[in-house]
Fold:
Amino acid sequence: MDYKFLDKVIEQIISETEIDYDRKVIGNPFPFPIVFYPHFSRSSRLIPFSFFNHCRDVYGLNKQEIEYVWEEYREIIKDKIENNGL
Structure:
């Protein structure tokens, strides 16, 4: 795996993700655009179908690469939520 490329993909997806801390909503760049914090926390280990398709179709990633990107993305978003964007 080209981790340098994958880290750039993660950075791009993070930059396109909007977190509304007041409404507790995550806006994503992939076709499942809004997720509420509690739903993200409960199901965050499962890769959403829309995230998988977005990474495959937009970035040409395979299953193993998508799993890596999801884990990193998930941890960064969870950290942002827990720290309220700080």
